[in-house]
Write a structure and sequence with these properties.
The complex is a heterodimer of chains A (about 900) and B (about 180). Chain A has about 900 residues and is α+β, with helices and mostly antiparallel strands. Chain A is about 40% helix and about 25% strand. Classes of the chains: A alpha+beta (about 900), B alpha+beta (about 180). Chains A and B meet through helix 15, helix 26 and strand 22 of A and strand 5 and strand 6 of B.
Chain lengths: ~900, ~180
């Protein structure tokens, strides 16, 4: 790639980013037309585009950007006030700029006369209007109302500058305007959060800087110079008119003095020679750093904002600006550089490698036979260990980008769509600083666009209907992102019409997705899930129903491809809430590490349903050559991993096996493995092309000790081995099972202490672990269990949340009930796992024990048990957790904004705490 | 094939040859292709892969695909021997950075690949004379992976065509087992 092409690409890329900010800002301007920061930002964006385009000579872009810039400068100087049509015009101008930038060489082909004419009309309107001072065109008139210095003042003013006469003469030759720009460093430059360096470079971008000069007020001496403000003067030549200059620099009229160029010409000829730097002298480069700077810095080391005092000791008030050290010492706005993803990946690899090395080091350091200097070594190893973890974490974060970049575009989509549909919709965005992996953001773009469009199109009603329903005429769509238990939760919420479960069911029956019988048994929430069913998503099906449905199955598949999942809640007449939960990054997935004939393999945790130890309770049977597992009354097809991978059969068949139950979209099957090794977060690495052809493998990973485990693909393994008929049989069974589950569900009965029996629905539970009390680490008021190297489980004591007997003493060994994702960052503490039982909904007595987090009570296995409402418990932890929340990684947007006032209260205080335990103790 | 021969005979050739042995036979390959040599790599076998793939090796956070040279060349494979050396070839990314990449560099893989061999031998100077390989029809050898032969006093060294070796060429004929 040639250097020119590279620069051009960079220009296009940068300009696109500027345009993106521009668009966001313009949207914001619509609602907040006088916000100065916004206006400034818009101005800067347009200006940068214009500058870049000018450099490459893309005249059409420059022309359009210039008009836009002029209008913006008027807006910024409050000469004009932005109104709706004007903003629309500006937006369409930015669209045109966008189009032009797609192929800047052919920008001329993009018709933008309308925009230019519109903007020019605005400009003309102003110039003929109330503010003659902001006139455009006519070279001399503006000079009249700026203060022109008399000759003597001239001498005095210009004598201060040390400049190169060529610059001056050059400007004179081209008939440019000369100015002296005066600015107080602290007041006018830094207050705009600019650095002097930026200011100077901005000046330089507008014209030619001939000379600079700075002075401290007369009363300032070395002792108090730190507090004093510095006045900077810039002798400056440019083609720009004064008012544009004012706008561009963000300075008032009084700061800019135009110098009459005709008089200047005479003055140059007669000027005292000492002002002119001799030709041999280096040009007065602004970056030039006089050697004295070092000395003078040591004089005033406390104040980085005071410019260093340069050479002339006889003239202590006149100091020379040396912008470089000043700028360097100051905090600059956040800087970014572009890095290729490949480079980041290799950094990531190297960091991973260091982690492995560290692990080995830790093991060696932990040995007692390494000699007398063991303790010294240990401390070094500890240090390296923490640095390594930090390093890995930091590099991981470098791959993340704020979701704001994705959310931003929805402002536009919602605005345009709502205008088109004659709806009034307000888009609220929360948590746009939440960060996500780049690849995830890209993958999220389409599904999210789909959801937002759906909300606008079908969710929000037209104003008349809204008012008829007693709502405000303006609908609200809320887009929010938040960190939740190590994942990112993205929510699309609207206060529109919601969905009608009955109509969904009717439609589903009509489409043949479910049978009438199934429909009658379906709960409302199950019915809502129907819209995710494939085959449910045809256009007619949607427009009849109150909304949604177009390609919702595609949305679901896309999100699941990213390792996330979608949930949907809807209340008829009140709105719909769609929740997307995603892992922070794609590169790391939770996996179950299993062993088969001495080789380790990884199975994606997302597909693992449960692990069964076949035996008397769950017998493995053969059915006409196919093996099946009898699991709670169902027959599950089973595949032996060693057969699948062609491991030679072993003599010793007595070896204990496990069946990992894998769940795919509509099917489950069992996979026989020899060993369950661990549960780990693995980093997915690609396999070479020679191995990619093996469809059972999706990649490989490197485990803690440096050994490789191949990642298995549950999908293609099923395709290879399980016959279609078996799958079909299985599918129908699991459907039936799912239906029967909706009436009667399996619950796990456990005790937190020796007190009450508690029951939790098994479908909420991922696994039960037994732990030793010594493994628990206490951080603040939280008990945590550290897993592997980087994931932590937070222990939840139900007695803290529910009116049950508090736990006094924990045994040496107890159980942890780990819920399914997304709540797999926490776990419930149980001292004893009692039993499991079937529980149907109507068995639950909802009257006797009422508390948040409880569904009610039921008699299970002849004992009275409290049935937990896990969703409510999770919500209590989220809402009431405050700063000690599980979701310590980020802020939970909704709570932070008090969007759910009812939920933010801590519920324990509302419960009749004092007498409840007494009643419940048996 | 002819292209590479022409190149091998080219007087202006600059790169050296790396000699190595496998199963008692001597081989050589273009040193430009070689990134490094691993000692006693831990090879994790991968089931269901092609016969010429011995497994994968953990190479600094990346997964290297390790080839069995003998199987790749279609020689009868005895019992898998413990690998004593692994010649790691450059990936696409490594090769594009070379000022003068080898001619067959386009065939390189984007993920690391390596060749398991018994021992590393001498480095042969660029001017070593490389003879064209005997025609396939006469020798019965699969010559797609062979760039030529270096003849010395007491032995013949097969010069390998690494580009073809690491690429996904389908076997033209069944390997001579």
């Amino acid at each position: 790639m040639s250097a020119d092409q590279e620069m051009l690409d960079l220009f296009v890329q940068e300009s696109s980013e500027h345009l993106q900010t521009l668009e966001t800002d313009l949207m914001a301007l619509e609602s907040n037309p006088t916000d100065n920061a916004l206006l400034n930002s818009i101005f800067r964006s347009v200006h940068s585009i214009k500058g870049g385009a000018g450099f490459f000579g893309f005249d059409p872009i420059v022309k359009l950007a210039h008009v836009m810039e002029s209008v913006m400068s008027l807006l910024r100087d409050a000469v004009l006030k932005a109104d709706q049509p004007m903003v629309s015009l500006l937006i369409s101008t930015s669209d045109k700029l966008n189009l032009m930038l797609v192929n800047p060489e052919r920008a001329i082909e993009i018709a933008c006369e309308g925009e230019i004419a519109g903007l020019k009309a605005i400009l003309d309107g102003t110039s003929s209007g109330t503010t003659p001072s902001a006139r455009k065109g006519g070279e001399k008139p503006p000079a009249k109302n700026t203060k022109i210095k008399s000759d003597s003042v001239f001498d005095k003013e210009l004598a201060r500058f040390n400049f190169h006469p060529d610059d001056l003469l050059d400007g004179l030759k081209h008939g440019q305007n000369f100015y002296i720009v005066q600015a107080e460093l602290a007041k006018e430059i830094e207050s705009q959060s600019q650095t002097l360096e930026n200011f100077v470079s901005e000046l330089a971008s507008l014209g030619t800087l001939i000379g600079t000069e700075a002075s401290l007020p007369d009363h300032v001496t070395l002792s108090n110079c730190a507090a004093a403000d510095v006045s900077c003067r810039f002798f400056f030549v440019t083609a720009l008119e004064p008012f544009i200059l004012c706008g561009a620099l963000g300075l008032g009229d009084e700061n800019i003095h135009q110098i009459d160029s005709s008089k200047l010409g005479e003055w140059v000829k007669t000027a005292p020679a000492q002002n002119m730097a001799p030709i041999v002298h280096e040009p007065q480069e602004i970056e030039e750093k006089p050697p004295e700077a070092v000395v003078s810095q040591s004089i005033v080391p406390t104040s980085p904002t005071v410019p260093t005092i340069a050479t002339k000791p006889a003239e202590p008030t006149a100091t020379q600006i040396d912008p470089k050290p000043v700028a360097a010492a100051k905090r600059k706005p956040e800087e970014t550089i572009r890095i290729s993803v490949g480079l980041l990946d290799s950094l990531m690899n190297l960091a991973g490698e260091m982690v492995l090395g560290r692990n080995r080091l830790l093991r060696i350091a932990g040995r007692s036979d390494t000699g007398s200097d063991n303790s010294q070594m240990q401390s070094v190893v500890q240090e390296i260990s923490s640095v390594t973890s930090n390093l890995q974490d930091t590099i991981m974060r470098a791959r993340l980008q704020p979701v704001g970049s994705l959310f931003g575009k929805f402002t536009r989509i919602v605005r345009d769509l709502s205008h088109k549909l004659d709806k009034q919709i307000q888009l609220e965005i929360f948590g746009d600083d939440v960060e996500l992996d780049r690849t995830l953001l890209e993958g999220l773009s389409d599904p999210l666009t789909h959801l937002v469009r759906n909300s606008v199109d079908h969710g929000i009603e037209i104003p008349a209907n809204r008012i008829a329903k007693g709502k405000t005429s303006c609908g609200t769509i809320r887009l929010s992102a938040a960190h939740l238990a190590g994942r990112v939760q993205i929510e699309v919420l609207d206060d529109g019409g919601g969905m009608d479960p009955e109509r969904l069911k009717a439609k589903a029956v009509e489409k043949g997705v479910i049978t009438t019988e199934q429909a009658s048994q379906m709960t409302d929430s199950d019915a809502l899930q129907l819209i995710f069913a494939a085959g449910f998503s045809t256009a007619e099906a949607v427009s009849d129903i109150s909304g949604r449905g177009v390609g919702m199955d595609v949305v679901k598949t896309n999100i699941e491809k990213l390792g996330g999942h979608v949930e949907l809640e809807s209340r008829l007449g009140q709105g719909t809430r769609i929740i997307i939960r995603l892992p922070l990054t794609l590169a790391i997935v939770p996996a179950l590490i299993v062993g088969c004939r001495g080789t380790t393999y990884a199975l994606p945790q997302i597909n693992v349903d449960e692990i069964v130890h076949p035996g008397e309770e769950y017998p493995l049977k053969s059915m006409g050559g196919a093996r099946v597992l009898e699991l709670r009354g169902q027959l599950l097809p089973v595949v032996d991993l060693s057969d699948l991978l062609g491991h030679p059969p072993r003599e010793n068949t007595k070896q204990e096996n496990f069946v990992v139950v894998l769940r795919l979209d509509h099917v489950s099957y069992g996979l026989i493995v020899n060993e369950i090794i661990s549960n780990e977060e693995i980093v997915v690495k690609p396999l070479g092309r020679h191995l990619r052809s093996v469809s059972y493998y999706t990649g490989a990973t490197i485990l803690g000790q440096g050994e490789i485990a191949v990642i298995l693909d549950p999908n293609s393994m099923a395709q290879g081995r399980i016959s279609a008929s078996q799958l079909a049989q299985n599918a129908s069974k699991s459907n039936e099972a799912a239906l029967s589950e909706s009436t009667s569900e399996r619950v796990l009965i456990f005790q937190e202490t020796n007190g009450e029996f508690l029951a939790i629905h098994l479908k909420k539970v991922m696994r039960v672990e037994s732990v030793k009390a010594s493994d628990i680490e206490r951080i603040g008021s939280m008990d945590c269990l550290r897993k592997n190297h980087d994931s932590t489980l937070r222990l939840v004591q139900l007695s803290d949340l529910l009116p049950i007997k508090p736990q006094t003493q924990r045994g040496d060994e107890f159980f942890l009930i780990v819920p399914r994702p997304p709540f797999d960052g926490l776990c419930l503490v149980a001292s004893r796992i009692v039993d499991s039982a079937d529980l149907s909904d109507d068995q639950i007595d909802r009257a006797t024990f009422k508390a948040r987090g409880l569904k009610g009570s039921a008699v299970l296995s002849d004992r009275l048990s409290l049935v937990l409402d896990f969703d409510a418990i999770a919500e209590m932890l989220t809402a009431g957790g405050d700063e000690t929340s599980v979701f310590a990684q980020g802020h939970f947007m909704l709570t932070a904004n008090s969007q759910k006032p009812g939920h933010s209260q801590h519920h324990i205080t509302q419960l009749p705490n004092a007498n409840a335990p007494a009643t419940l103790t048996n | 094939m002819n292209l590479s021969l022409a190149k091998a005979d080219h007087p202006a050739r600059e790169s050296q040859w790396l000699g190595f042995t496998s199963c008692g036979r001597q081989y050589a390959c273009d040193l430009l292709w070689v990134k490094e040599v691993l000692r006693c790599p831990a090879v994790t076998p991968v089931k269901l892969a092609s016969s010429y793939i011995r497994g994968v090796v953990h190479l600094r956070g990346q997964i290297l695909t390790a080839f069995d040279l003998e199987a790749r060349l279609g020689h009868p494979v005895s019992e898998p021997r413990p690998a004593s050396r692994c010649i790691v070839f450059k990936t696409t990314n490594d090769l594009v950075r070379l000022p003068r990449p080898p001619e067959d560099h386009e065939l390189a893989d984007s993920d690391p690949t390596g060749l398991l061999v018994d021992a590393i031998g001498d480095i042969l100077p660029p001017e070593t004379r490389v003879l064209p390989a005997p025609p396939e029809a006469l020798s019965g050898l699969d010559t797609r992976f062979i760039a030529g032969v270096i003849s010395s006093q007491d032995s013949l060294t097969t010069v390998l065509q690494i580009g073809n070796l690491v690429s996904m060429l389908e076997l033209k004929k069944s390997p001579a087992v």
